[in-house]
């Protein structure tokens, strides 16, 4: 499953990134608690103690909310960067199976996403026992959730990297997936509201209802960028955990079955170019159509918006998908 020789190769290739990310993830949460305690001590020195409380509250998130960025960076380095540099061809020419290559990369990177955060969790817990805050809110739920979400982000960007041939394509594909439920449900329904002359209010009633749906919205990965999930039930974290497994499976089969000869192209499989271009144009038509309707509140504005959407969607998709990126 994971080869020792490949582990050494990946470590030597990316050890500086591993060290920096590990250091950041281990220290960030203890630093947050230390900073809260320092502010409390400063309050005691300059104010009446009755106005000072030592409260550790994660209901609004913290700097640790951005731990998912570490997963994105690792996935880009492990796949996107090597694709752009043309190093993946050499790696796959070595006496290892594609399954070994992907699993080694995936689980090594995943370990550097999860283990340092777990270590930081332990250090932060120890600091809380030493400092003894007056109140603690959402600490365990937030930290565990941040670890799961960062691993989900890592698995998503890794899966995107198995289908794309450069860093930009990898990140853009991953971002598109993070808003995919909105694109495939929100845009079509919003257009139906316009076509059938349903009152959409000051903005778009469906979009507002979409956001208000507390259960459905958490199937949209980009939702977890914001800390609102902290105040939801702990079982909510089963959703990003399940999505992590799904992204791993997609990435695994895409890597072992996909092409590797088109490094630098947007998609490694040339068969994806035309279907994805059509999808991009459709999304642009629907999106600009709704924008035109919202600005003019008329069907004329809606049609004009669709026209410009088709034009912009075609140009963007053509230059993005069919233009090869030069190797770094």
UniProtKB/TrEMBL annotation:
It comes from Bacillus nakamurai. Keywords: Membrane, Transmembrane, Transmembrane helix. The chain crosses the membrane at residues 16-36, 63-81, 106-131, 137-160, 167-187, 235-255, 276-293, 299-321. It comes from the Bacteria. The keyword Thylakoid does not apply. The lineage of its organism: Bacteria, Bacillati, Bacillota, Bacilli, Bacillales. This is ABC transporter permease.
């Amino acid at each position: 499953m994971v080869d020792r020789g490949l582990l050494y190769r990946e470590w030597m290739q990316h050890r500086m990134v591993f060290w920096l990310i590990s250091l950041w993830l281990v220290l960030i949460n203890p630093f947050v608690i230390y900073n809260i305690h320092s502010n409390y001590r400063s309050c005691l020195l300059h104010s009446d103690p009755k106005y000072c409380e030592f409260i550790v509250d994660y209901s609004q998130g913290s700097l640790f909310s951005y731990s998912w960025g570490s997963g994105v960076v690792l996935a880009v380095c492990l796949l996107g960067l090597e694709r752009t540099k043309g190093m993946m061809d050499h790696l796959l020419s070595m006496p290892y199976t594609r399954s070994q290559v992907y699993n080694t990369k995936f689980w090594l990177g995943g370990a550097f996403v999860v283990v340092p955060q777990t270590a930081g969790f332990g250090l932060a817990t120890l600091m809380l026992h030493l400092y003894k805050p007056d109140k603690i809110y959402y600490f365990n739920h937030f930290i565990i959730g941040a670890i799961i979400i960062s691993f989900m982000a890592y698995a998503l960007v890794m899966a995107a990297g198995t289908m794309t041939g450069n860093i930009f394509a990898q990140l853009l594909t991953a971002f598109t997936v993070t808003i995919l439920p909105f694109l495939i449900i929100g845009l079509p329904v919003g257009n139906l509201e316009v076509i059938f002359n349903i009152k959409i209010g000051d903005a778009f009633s469906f979009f507002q209802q979409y956001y208000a749906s507390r259960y459905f919205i958490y199937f949209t990965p980009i939702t977890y960028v914001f800390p609102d999930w902290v105040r939801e039930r702990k079982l909510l974290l089963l959703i990003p955990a399940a999505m992590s497994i799904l992204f791993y499976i997609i990435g695994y089969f895409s890597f072992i079955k996909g092409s590797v000869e088109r490094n630098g192209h947007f998609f490694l499989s040339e068969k994806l170019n035309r279907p994805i271009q059509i999808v991009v144009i459709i999304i642009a038509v629907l999106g600009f159509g709704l924008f035109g309707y919202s600005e003019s509140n008329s069907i004329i504005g809606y049609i004009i918006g669709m026209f410009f959407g088709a034009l912009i969607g075609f140009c963007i998709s053509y230059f993005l998908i069919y233009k090869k990126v030069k190797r770094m």
